[in-house]
Design brief:
By secondary structure, the protein is of the alpha+beta class. The protein has a single domain, classed as Endonuclease/exonuclease/phosphatase (Deoxyribonuclease I, Chain A). The chain is built from 5 helices and 14 strands. The strands form 3 sheets. The chain has a 6-stranded mixed sheet. The protein has a 6-stranded mixed sheet with strand order 5-6-7-10-12-11. Strand 1, helix 1 and strand 2 form a beta-alpha-beta unit.
């Protein structure tokens, strides 16, 4: 199973040019089973008012797609959204939005952020895949957001799937639509722009419960840089991660950063797991996302 994490910066590349088609071409070339994207937007003037999730889904027809915004506002120019996307080569069984807490900021721009969780099936069993972005502003805000993610993770098995209980209510209304309930699972992979480095308290807080795929594979820190030096930020950093639950760590096989990518100010992170997706033919399934 190949997974890709890519903060696409709404298609604004290393050359400063906004080109969403270039992002789509880079993603297609990576030939991944799962794509976790961040900074995908709808209705912003800077990106031409494009519905980017719809455009990406059209350019990547072999995938089922799911988009949920963390930021959603109707302003003077109409509705605009900013959030995370998951694309997978099998139907996304169920989906949940995870709003992340925000602290007020008076001296820097700040906005609502969130995570999107999709349930997929694999040879390792049901997996929760989460595409997310954490705050770039303060450690305090990131710690609150990590607390939210950890609480969601801890409570997931006990909450059950997207629906639970008997299908028939009062013996008449079939809320199941004739389907079995999606399973609950503790197995999860967090993919995203965490805006943290591996020697911080926020990293340690998350790594106490999740395994950093890059470090588990004993790869050099310098090879994991996903935020290269550029005019606005001279310090290269490893801030995009794949964190997996401990039961999945033995399935990790390889990881790399696609440093030749041009489509964003981030580089894509590619993770390989031993498990295969058990995807039925696309033609026989209906898109959920």
């Amino acid at each position: 199973m190949r997974l890709v994490c890519y903060n696409i910066q709404y298609g604004r590349g290393k050359d400063g040019r906004i080109d969403l088609a270039r992002i789509a071409a880079e993603l297609a070339a990576l030939d991944a089973d799962v794509l976790a994207l961040q900074e995908v937007e709808v209705g912003w003037q800077r990106s031409g008012g494009v519905d980017q999730p719809a455009a990406l889904a059209a350019w990547l027809p072999g995938y089922f797609s799911l988009y949920l915004p963390g930021f959603d506002l109707h302003g003077t120019q109409g509705r605009r959204q900013f959030g995370n996307m998951l694309l997978a080569r099998q139907p996304i069984w169920s989906a949940r939005a995870i709003p992340l807490p925000k602290l007020p900021a008076s001296d820097a721009f700040n906005m609502d952020l969130g995570a999107v969780e999709g349930l997929l099936n694999s040879s390792a069993g049901p997996l929760r895949l989460v595409s997310l972005q954490l705050s770039p502003l303060t450690l305090a805000e990131r710690l609150l957001q990590i607390d939210t993610l950890l609480e969601r993770h801890r409570s997931a098995p006990g909450q059950g799937g997207a629906w639970t209980g008997p299908a028939l209510v009062r013996g008449v209304t079939d809320w199941s639509n004739g389907e079995a309930p999606p399973p609950a699972t503790a197995s999860a992979i967090l993919l995203g722009d965490f805006n943290l480095v591996a020697d911080g308290a926020d990293y340690a807080h998350l790594a106490a419960e999740f395994v950093d795929a890059w470090r588990h594979l004993a790869l050099p820190e310098a090879d994991g840089i996903t935020y290269p030096a550029h005019a606005d930020w001279p310090n290269p950093m490893r801030i995009d991660y794949a964190f997996v639950t401990r039961d999945l760590a033995p399935l990790l096989r390889a990881a790399r950063v696609e440093s030749a990518a041009l489509g964003s100010d981030h580089d894509p992170l590619v993770i390989e797991l031993a498990a295969d997706l058990l995807a039925p033919p696309l033609a026989k399934m209906s898109q959920l996302g």
